[in-house]
Structure formats: structure tokens, C-alpha cells
Amino acid sequence: MSERRVFRFAPSPNGYLHLGHAYSALLNFTLARDCGGRFLLRIEDIDLGRARPAFEAAIHEDLAWLGLEWERPVRRQSEHFEDYAAALESLGAMGLLYACDCKRSDIGRFAAAHSDWPRDPDGAPLYPGTCRDKPRRPAREVLAEGGSALRLDMRKAAALAGEGLFWRERCAPGRAPDSTAPEAEEGFSLMRADPAQWGDVALARKDTPASYHIAVVVDDALQGVTDVVRGRDLFFATSLHRLLQKLLRLPEPRYFHHELILDDAGEKLAKSRSSTTLRALRDAGVSAAEVWRKLGF
What we know:
Layout: E1 6-9, H1 19-34, E2 38-43, H2 53-65, E3 75-76, H3 81-93, E4 97-100, H4 104-112, H5 139-145, E5 149-152, H6 154-161, E6 166-170, E7 183-185, E8 188-192, E9 202-204, H7 212-222, E10 227-231, H8 237-248, E11 254-258, H9 278-283, H10 288-294
Parallel strand pairs: 1-2, 2-3, 10-11
Antiparallel strand pairs: 4-5, 5-9, 6-8, 7-8
Helix pairs in contact: 7-8
């Protein structure tokens, strides 16, 4: 390949890093190192209500302790809301966004009243389209007023994107590629995207002016990321990300959704589960070299 490949590790500063984060960071770092590529750190602090400066500082400390090096300056999402607003404005100009005043509790009650109501890959009930037929207004105008979310009209978006939406997925070592997927290039298979399973997803809310989904595709494009390496818990989100990339005419990176690090109970490590942090391991006398070995590097 003639291009210089670009990898990134993009944690959120809403808690301390654990071994699951370390695995993803080390995998991105070593893949970049082994192919002569670039390794970026991005701070995904778009959720200002949960982001904390102390956690952001800890991310830098923990990664440095592991022996990782990354390019500067580090992109912080909270400094780039204008980039996400511009992307939302583009989708709005296509007639693909609408304002929604429904609360999550409203959607939950609707789903509870309808047996077998469909859910998205994260388990949340799909939005029933209550506000879909409201008059469409510019995205900036809706967000400036507050009190509303901006939702993607999935039916219109999928129709505009057209059929044949795929992404290139790296074949994990020891795992056979999907036999139904044609080979994209050596080591990668084509995976068919199915963004409709997300329904009319919210791309912005009054308290978070851009969702993870819109921010991550914009960030990856602006930073020239060629390879998105992240956990399998984000595998299904890639369908939505490919749709947004197609609509916004953004570059298509390759993807590698790696296995998750599990605890003794077989559950994935998570900040919400108070999984053992890298800082706690360090304080207990565990060395960075031991962490590398424990994670298979």
C-alpha cells in the first residue's frame, strides 16, 4: 500500500482506563508501529456533563506509563463543535434531519405498549417516528433553541445512500472470514452495512450538540484515519457510520473490531462496573511490561 496508515485510540475522559482500554490502545499502537504508520490519541469529551479534567490527565499518564507515544497536538472533541455542526447542517440541507421533542421515557412507554417493538443493536427501543412529519428546520436553528433532539430520517437517508453499502473488515487471527462476504483486499472482507437497524437515531441533543456517531465519522475524516481498530461492542455501529460517511462524502476507513477483555464472570470490562483500573494495577506494583504480556503483546 502506498498510503501511510493512520490509527487512533479515542477514549472518553469519564473514568480511569482499565485493561480493556489498554488492549485497544496497545493494539492500535503496535499495528501502527509494525506498518510504519501513525498513532493518534483523541479525547472524546463531547459529553461535557461527564468529562472530567482529572480523567483526561490520567489517560495521558496511563498511556505514557505503558510506554506509548502519540502525535501532538491531541484532538479534543470539545474544541471542535463547529465541525460537527457543519456536518449536521449538511444533513439538514438534504432534508434528512428533523426536530424531536420526545423524551426517552416517552419512547419507552410507547415500546412497552406495543408487544415485540423492535430494538436497536444496543437494546434500546427504536424511535416510533412521532415527530417525523414535523416541518423541517435548519439544524443550527433547532439546536440554538434547545429542548429538542435532531434525528436522522433513516428511510430517506438509506434511500439517498442507495444499495450496496459495505465496509472493509479485517479478518482477526485464527478466525475465518465470513463466507458470504467477498474479499475486499488481502486480509479484509466486505461486510454489508444495515443502518436501518438503528432506526431514526438521534444525532444531536440539547445537552450534547453532537452524538458519538456524527462526531466519530467527522473526526476520523478530518484526522485522516485509515484504520479504525476498536472493540466488537461497536461492530453494529459501523453500519450507521458507513451511512453517514456516504451521505457526507467522507473517506471510508478500514475496520477491525477486536475481541473484548472479559472479567472472571465473563462480562466485558467497563468503567460502570468499576473494573480494576490501570492506576490500581500500577499502585499494586504491576509493571507496564507485565500488562503487555498479560494482554498478549
